[in-house]
Amino acid sequence: MRERTIASHFVRAALRGAERQGRDCTPLLRQLGIQPALLDEPRARVAPEQFARLVQLLWESLDDEYLGFGQLRSKRGTFAMMCYVIIHCHSLEKALGRGALFYSLFPAAPGISIQREGDWARLSVDDSSLNDPDHFLVECLLVIWHRLGSWLIGQRIRLEETTFTYSQPAHASEYELLFPCTRRFAAGQTSLLFHARYLAMPLLQDERTLKQFLQHSPADLLARPDGGDSLISQIRRLLGRDCSDWPDLDAVAQQLHMSPQTLRRHLREEGSSFQELKDHLRRDLAIYHLGRADLAIQDIAEQLGFSEPSAFHRAFKKWTGLTPGAYRAQEG
């Protein structure tokens, strides 16, 4: 769903490298329709299109695909050239290996490596050379390499586990969207674990499709939601966008071929609940509609299943820290 919104934490984190270089990012935010004051509200969120455009504008203004987090710049076009280097490889294993070798030729670049572990393969990123306090770039690299690999073979690589060398951050609940699998923090390395069978798969892309792919990548790879087949994503798909006609928990459990008790337990294990899922989906749909001026706030409230606009105002303020009117004004 394109309406899945992005936490303001990631916007603040993306700007850190540019700000450290003394850049004033206010004009850039205004260009995107994001009022800087919005970032002072920790619960605020932005549309995925705004986030993708932010990353692109940062790359352009800094001429640095590392967004100011590396010891040295990675000049714009480096990622594209790496893609052209790997596009004629016969298998995903060759492509990932050649891509890792390509980046190893640049001094102080984050190290990328692929190892087999029995039936599994692990793609690791060594970020020790980065000045990246929020771990923003290393998480971007994990997402980009996962989604690039999936695109190359024409199917989504199912992740088994993602590991991080740092401790679990306050915004860890957001990671379900980025890394829909088991996540381990304070681990020995920052890595993605997936089945080794993907490595033998042939590349289904060529230079013609690559040219099209590069028009929006890698920024679009970061902003595009990838809930995969996680339980939370399955439930969001079953709920859909019509809030007035949402199935109840029993009906959702039946569609997922499990008992309501089992569904509740699985959600509890993922740190969520059915009500919280519905609230988050309502929140994302509300932000999606508020970003488009064609609907009055009262109409949005009705679409989201609120009997009174005042109930929508209270709920939205609880979700984002702002009223719907203030949020729309900030976005303008």
As a percent range, the share of strand residues is 5-15%
**Major sheet summary line:** 5 strands, mixed
How many whole angstroms does the radius of gyration measure? 21 Å
Number of strands: 7
Low-confidence stretches: none
Strand order of the largest sheet: 3-4-7-5-6
Mean pLDDT across every amino acid position:
88
Shape: globular
Q: What's the helix-strand series?
A: EHHEHHHEEHEHEEHHHHHHHHH
Q: What structural class do the secondary elements suggest?
A: alpha+beta
Kindly give the count of domains.
Answer: 3
What is the rounded distance between the termini? 23 Å
Count of helices?
Answer: 16
Helix content: 40-55%
